[in-house]
């Protein structure tokens, strides 16, 4: 008799909901988040940071998505409305933007990450997904959530927490966990001042990536219990996850098991671009011949609002006045007019004027660099007009007086900083 074929299990992503927490300011990005929330910060030439979590959800097969916003959310909401309005209710899809609307309490905005979900509990119940994939909207990575959902179901977990090993001294900004040989989380500490190392590998710590999977019914039970606790800070990392570790079945999901990599990517890639230095480094890494993150991967595209721009343009061909870009990413609408860009990332509609030179520069959309200006190792905010002849990156003391200069020597430049120069 012919061998009977066993049908593969139905994708769990189709009955799941992605709930993205995108309300944080991201104060360590300094002036970059004065006017926008961290998930709305530009990244990679044409995307926003939040596009990575949302693209992972769509590419994984999830068709119900909600985004909770709070801090200075206008630019984020506008981006979501423009770029993520293709999900259709008539196809059993949904995309909900959930500002802090005081649905539960007229006195409280979102008090914490758990409260952000609790205040929208009626919307979640109405959609009735089988599972909730809870995501942070401010990290750069590619991941197949279907694999994490499958592990969650197969192991009968109450919560599954995605994690990865990071240098121990860098782990104080994350939840840090210990797991037993079966992968069960036996201890979870949110943002410890002195993170514990991994047994046998003391230089590393096992850090939570802020990605959680719950069965919906169980999650809602925990949210109601937590909301009734006056001692709680109503945060997943500080309250919900440690309670489940102590009283339920919490398991770890290793990022390398579901990280999406093209043939060009050797190692799992995940970045918290929460500081100016980290943001600059991740952006400039994209200019490498073989970058750690492959944005050209057509099998796992990063969806975003596709702004209509003309092609990039390079003009003039005279010695000392030649439009050139070397080891750089140049987005649509850019004009490199007799100027040089080296190892730089130019977002949409940047204009470099004659005799200007930029190196190690992350220029956000609509930056205008005047004639003869020289910029080295900088992040320039959207719409900034660099005056002709300005030199940044060659005199550390002068840079520190005029701009935001980091410990690693990266200068953040905004228009108010330039206006103060007179």
From TrEMBL:
<dbReference type="InterPro" id="IPR023049">
    <property type="entry name" value="GlgC_bac"/>
</dbReference>
<dbReference type="InterPro" id="IPR029044">
    <property type="entry name" value="Nucleotide-diphossugar_trans"/>
</dbReference>
<dbReference type="GO" id="GO:0008878">
    <property type="term" value="F:glucose-1-phosphate adenylyltransferase activity"/>
</dbReference>
<keyword id="KW-0808">Transferase</keyword>
<feature type="binding site">
    <location>
        <position position="110"/>
    </location>
    <ligand>
        <name>alpha-D-glucose 1-phosphate</name>
    </ligand>
</feature>
<dbReference type="GO" id="GO:0005978">
    <property type="term" value="P:glycogen biosynthetic process"/>
</dbReference>
<keyword id="KW-0067">ATP-binding</keyword>
<feature type="binding site">
    <location>
        <position position="175"/>
    </location>
    <ligand>
        <name>alpha-D-glucose 1-phosphate</name>
    </ligand>
</feature>
<feature type="domain" description="Nucleotidyl transferase">
    <location>
        <begin position="18"/>
        <end position="287"/>
    </location>
</feature>
<keyword id="KW-0321">Glycogen metabolism</keyword>
<dbReference type="InterPro" id="IPR005836">
    <property type="entry name" value="ADP_Glu_pyroP_CS"/>
</dbReference>
<comment type="function">
    <text>Involved in the biosynthesis of ADP-glucose, a building block required for the elongation reactions to produce glycogen. Catalyzes the reaction between ATP and alpha-D-glucose 1-phosphate (G1P) to produce pyrophosphate and ADP-Glc.</text>
</comment>
<comment type="pathway">
    <text>Glycan biosynthesis; glycogen biosynthesis.</text>
</comment>
<feature type="site" description="Could play a key role in the communication between the regulatory and the substrate sites">
    <location>
        <position position="109"/>
    </location>
</feature>
<dbReference type="Pfam" id="PF00483">
    <property type="entry name" value="NTP_transferase"/>
</dbReference>
<dbReference type="InterPro" id="IPR011004">
    <property type="entry name" value="Trimer_LpxA-like_sf"/>
</dbReference>
<comment type="similarity">
    <text>Belongs to the bacterial/plant glucose-1-phosphate adenylyltransferase family.</text>
</comment>
<dbReference type="InterPro" id="IPR011831">
    <property type="entry name" value="ADP-Glc_PPase"/>
</dbReference>
<dbReference type="InterPro" id="IPR056818">
    <property type="entry name" value="GlmU/GlgC-like_hexapep"/>
</dbReference>
<keyword id="KW-0547">Nucleotide-binding</keyword>
<protein>
    <recommendedName>
        <fullName>Glucose-1-phosphate adenylyltransferase</fullName>
        <ecNumber>2.7.7.27</ecNumber>
    </recommendedName>
</protein>
<feature type="site" description="Could play a key role in the communication between the regulatory and the substrate sites">
    <location>
        <position position="70"/>
    </location>
</feature>
<keyword id="KW-0320">Glycogen biosynthesis</keyword>
<dbReference type="InterPro" id="IPR005835">
    <property type="entry name" value="NTP_transferase_dom"/>
</dbReference>
<feature type="binding site">
    <location>
        <position position="208"/>
    </location>
    <ligand>
        <name>alpha-D-glucose 1-phosphate</name>
    </ligand>
</feature>
<comment type="subunit">
    <text>Homotetramer.</text>
</comment>
<keyword id="KW-0548">Nucleotidyltransferase</keyword>
<feature type="domain" description="Glucose-1-phosphate adenylyltransferase/Bifunctional protein GlmU-like C-terminal hexapeptide">
    <location>
        <begin position="310"/>
        <end position="413"/>
    </location>
</feature>
<feature type="binding site">
    <location>
        <begin position="190"/>
        <end position="191"/>
    </location>
    <ligand>
        <name>alpha-D-glucose 1-phosphate</name>
    </ligand>
</feature>
<keyword id="KW-0119">Carbohydrate metabolism</keyword>
<dbReference type="Pfam" id="PF24894">
    <property type="entry name" value="Hexapep_GlmU"/>
</dbReference>
<dbReference type="GO" id="GO:0005524">
    <property type="term" value="F:ATP binding"/>
</dbReference>
